[in-house]
């Protein structure tokens, strides 16, 4: 079985489902996502932890005149993220399949295309192929937001298009320059294979400006401050299953891009701009935390908490320490498993508060809903990185890496750990406890609401007991990803020119 089957299966299912009767489209799409999940599990089961390099490689010449390959593969950096993607999409499609949608065939088609594109971006081992999948995965969310969004969806879609198109253009320019300059500087045939480019280091000047282009593209997608201008409108307008997937998975493709592409190909620039990236991450942590515990909107609490958490992930990556990068990769899994059920829970709470997502309308909803309150509590404790949770292990490794790299930044970043407890508990207490608000109804979580949430909560508990599931598979690959940049930092600290 090749990775191409895993990547293109969701799109094939979406095309077949478009021929099904209208009332069966949602359920058929969900069943198709379970098949994709099963394929991903089979790759995880066959993945060899002790083996070095890529596994399950597919490598065919795509455009020979440009040196572009259709190259796919799995290693410690992406194998868990691929499985995570199929889990989150299955949960989102299960949630969507129990609701009524206008033009359901088109709605579920965009989800199928989005899953194929995200899986392709994670599996791509050619720079041009990665850029193609990275841009492709944005298209479905333009249409999902514009066609099925709420509120001022036109404004939201416009801002999303402008921000992401600028970032995508910069990344395209940087990718072309990387292949062209590597070829000209080393006198080799043009290639965009990432493994080949690692053996063809660019000059320091070239690395600097190419790094900035890639960083801008990835920071817009995550997003981090000051590249987050599209986030409030975009997250408010997206339908719940779309925003759950976007926040849980698409933002991780950008963080993964730093580990897969930026650090290995541009190690000098990664070390040169380390402090800049750490400061961007630190500002994002503090700003996202402050806004998350002041905004009156439950959905935006989750959105801004994601900015803070992605700041922590970036902090770990640009600690340029193996421990920090390991923690960042683990935190990518943890954050995805937390943020997706949080958006589903926000939808469930809004349904009990007369459709309002304002915290002021949601008090006392736990009165007759112990199961709902318990599920929400588990997710909340994971969000604030309660000791014993996998989130705690991830943040511990990140801060350990940053303390070894930049002590002052690490000390300030610990304020974000305290702040996460404030906004997480504020969200939980403000919705579950206090008096029942006027117009709100306290009732137990229904089957359709619980089914997409319970499996993810179980995964949160599993990772709490066994965070080594991700760490053991990624340790060798992550260390290799940061090795060159770490060497530059160490030599600079030693006073070498």
Give a summary of the structure in a few sentences:
With 497 residues, this protein is mostly helical.
Report on this model:
By secondary structure, the protein is mostly helical. It is 72% helix and 3% strand. The protein is built from 21 helices and two strands. The protein has helices at 3-17, 25-46, 79-97, 104-123, 127-136, 139-148, 153-186, 194-198, 204-221, 231-237, 240-265, 267-272, 274-292, 298-317, 322-352, 370-383, 390-405, 407-432, 447-450, 454-465, 468-493; strands at residues 55-63, 68-74. The chain has a two-stranded antiparallel sheet. Strand 1 (55-63) and strand 2 form a beta hairpin. Helix 3 packs parallel to helix 15 (322-352). The chain is globular. The termini are far apart. The mean pLDDT is 89.
Helix-strand blueprint:
Blueprint: H1 3-17, H2 25-46, E1 55-63, E2 68-74, H3 79-97, H4 104-123, H5 127-136, H6 139-148, H7 153-186, H8 194-198, H9 204-221, H10 231-237, H11 240-265, H12 267-272, H13 274-292, H14 298-317, H15 322-352, H16 370-383, H17 390-405, H18 407-432, H19 447-450, H20 454-465, H21 468-493
Antiparallel strand pairs: 1-2
Helix pairs in contact: 1-2, 1-4, 2-3, 2-4, 3-4, 3-11, 3-15, 4-5, 4-6, 4-11, 5-7, 6-7, 7-9, 7-10, 9-11, 11-14, 11-15, 11-21, 13-14, 13-18, 14-15, 14-17, 14-18, 15-16, 15-17, 15-20, 15-21, 16-18, 16-20, 17-18
Give me the secondary-structure category: mainly alpha
Low-confidence stretches: none
Distance between the termini: 49 Å
Strand order of the largest sheet: 1-2
Number of strands: 2
Number of helices: 21
Helix content: over 70%
Strand % is under 5%
Major beta sheet summary: 2 strands, antiparallel
- Shape descriptor reads globular
């Amino acid at each position: 079985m090749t990775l191409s089957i895993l990547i293109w299966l969701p799109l094939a299912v979406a095309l077949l489902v478009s021929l099904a009767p209208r009332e069966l489209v949602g359920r058929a799409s969900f069943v198709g996502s379970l098949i994709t999940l099963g394929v991903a599990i089979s790759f995880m089961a066959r993945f060899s932890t002790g083996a070095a390099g890529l596994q399950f490689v597919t490598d065919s010449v795509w455009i020979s005149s440009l040196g572009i390959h259709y190259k796919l593969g799995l290693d410690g950096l992406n194998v868990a993220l691929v499985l995570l993607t199929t889990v989150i999409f299955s949960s989102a499609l299960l949630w969507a399949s129990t609701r009524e949608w206008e033009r359901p065939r088109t709605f579920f088609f965009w989800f199928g295309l989005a899953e194929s594109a995200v899986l392709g971006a994670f599996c791509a081992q050619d720079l041009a192929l990665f850029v193609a999948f990275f841009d492709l995965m944005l298209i479905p969310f333009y249409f999902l937001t514009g066609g099925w969004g709420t509120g001022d969806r036109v404004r939201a879609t416009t801002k999303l298009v402008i921000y992401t198109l600028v970032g995508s253009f910069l990344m395209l320019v940087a990718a072309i320059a990387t292949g062209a300059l590597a070829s000209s500087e080393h006198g080799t045939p043009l290639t965009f294979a990432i493994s080949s480019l690692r053996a063809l280091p660019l000059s320091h000047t070239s690395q600097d400006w190419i790094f900035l282009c890639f960083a801008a593209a990835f920071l817009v997608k995550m997003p981090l401050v000051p590249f987050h201008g599209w986030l409030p409108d975009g997250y408010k307008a997206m339908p719940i299953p779309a925003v759950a997937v976007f926040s849980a998975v698409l933002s991780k493709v950008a963080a993964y891009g730093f580990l897969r592409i930026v650090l290995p190909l541009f190690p000098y620039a990664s070390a040169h701009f380390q402090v800049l990236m750490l400061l961007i991450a630190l500002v994002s942590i503090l700003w996202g935390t402050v806004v998350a515990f002041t905004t009156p909107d439950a959905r935006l609490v989750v959105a801004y908490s994601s900015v803070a958490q992605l700041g922590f992930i970036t902090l770990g990556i640009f600690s340029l320490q193996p421990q920090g990068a390991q923690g960042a990769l683990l935190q990518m899994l943890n954050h995805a498993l937390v943020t997706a059920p949080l958006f589903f829970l926000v939808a469930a709470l809004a349904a009990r508060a007369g459709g309002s997502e304002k915290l002021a309308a949601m008090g006392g909803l736990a009165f007759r809903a112990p199961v709902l309150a318990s599920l929400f509590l588990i997710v909340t404790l994971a969000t604030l990185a309660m000791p014993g949770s996998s989130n705690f292990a991830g943040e511990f490794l990140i801060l350990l890496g940053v303390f070894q790299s930049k002590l002052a930044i690490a000390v300030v970043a610990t304020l974000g750990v305290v702040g996460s407890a404030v906004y997480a508990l504020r969200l939980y207490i403000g919705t579950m406890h206090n008096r029942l608000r006027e117009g709100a109804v306290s009732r137990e979580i229904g089957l359709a609401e619980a089914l997409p949430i319970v499996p993810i909560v179980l995964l949160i508990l599993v990772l709490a007991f066994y965070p080594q599931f991700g760490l053991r598979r990624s340790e060798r690959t992550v260390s290799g990803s940061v090795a060159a940049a770490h060497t530059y930092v160490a030599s600079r600290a030693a006073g070498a020119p």
